[in-house]
Amino acid sequence: MTAVPTAAIRMRAAVTTSRRGWRSIDPLSRAAVIVLAVIVLVTIVATLTGLTGSTSATVGGRFEGPSLAAPLGTDNLGRSLLPRLFQGIATTLVVSLVAVACAAVISVVLGMIAGYVGGAANEAVMRVVDVLYSFPALVLAILVSALIGPGRTAATISIVAITIPLMTRVVRLATRAVSERDFVISARISGVSTPRIFVRRLLPNISGTVAVQASYALSVAILVEGGLSFLGFGVQVPEASLGLLIQQGMLYMTLAPQLLVVPGVVLVVSILCINIIGDGLRDRFEPRETRSLT
């Protein structure tokens, strides 16, 4: 009898598990994942290959309708909207993803320290979080942009400052709940170092909560970046972002409504898909019977 290689068995098991996992996702979440994946993949391909044309080249007259040279029409300078749309999506996603990644790292560290160590560390972390949380999101973003100056850096720091408070609070609560479990208490009694407990005991058990909060933070990040760029405090020309495209399209909405409608629809659809995915992650990692009713 021929023995099946162990690697092949593991690969088949992994494929079977992934298929079961995909089928277990509800249809709405699956649709959201597919739509968001299509947007991201098409944007990556269009940005890297330049198949849609140059973002600065003039391809026709001002405010022309869709054509072979400009499938979505032209803007006020005669440039094709399609490559600028992909540039805007790429800019918005990159700024939002970088900001959320930074906020997630900071929030996880602060939340675990506050939830596990407690005492003065908890008070110090939570007071800083309360101060940031007291500012309305858009006001805080505008304040950061006014201090630093408009641009990508200001948008990134603004998103980090807005998303840290809520993520830190949730991570702190999750850490405190996990810290009271027997395996963490036994590790502490056994003399396991605090950093090792953080990495080997706490982080794997709060990763689901972090994933859920990061998905919601990403939708907030996209909205904040769009709002800042729309108000003139975010990404600046000659770059493009969804918020900046919406701002420019609003000025000519009666002459060329597609300049406003197309980036607006992409922004709304992206945020909607991310929120649906976040709801799916919450249902998977936080069953309803275990959620707090408060």
From TrEMBL:
Protein origin, superkingdom: Bacteria
Asked whether the UniProt record includes Cell membrane among its keywords, one would answer yes
Q: Which PROSITE patterns is this protein grouped with?
A: ABC_TM1
Query: Main localization of the protein?
Result: membrane
**Listed InterPro entries:** BP-dependent_transpt_permease, MetI-like, MetI-like_sf
| Alphabetic keyword roster | Cell membrane, Membrane, Transmembrane, Transmembrane helix, Transport
Give TM regions: 28-51, 89-116, 128-148, 154-171, 210-235, 255-278
Localization, per the record, is: Cell membrane
Q: Where is the ABC transmembrane type-1 domain?
A: 89-278
SUPFAM superfamilies attached here? MetI-like (SSF161098)
Classify the protein's membrane topology as the record does: Multi-pass membrane protein
Which Pfam family, any one, appears in the UniProt record?
BPD_transp_1
* Membership in a protein family: Belongs to the binding-protein-dependent transport system permease family.
- Per its record, how is this protein called by name? ABC transporter permease
* Taxonomic source organism: Microbacterium koreense
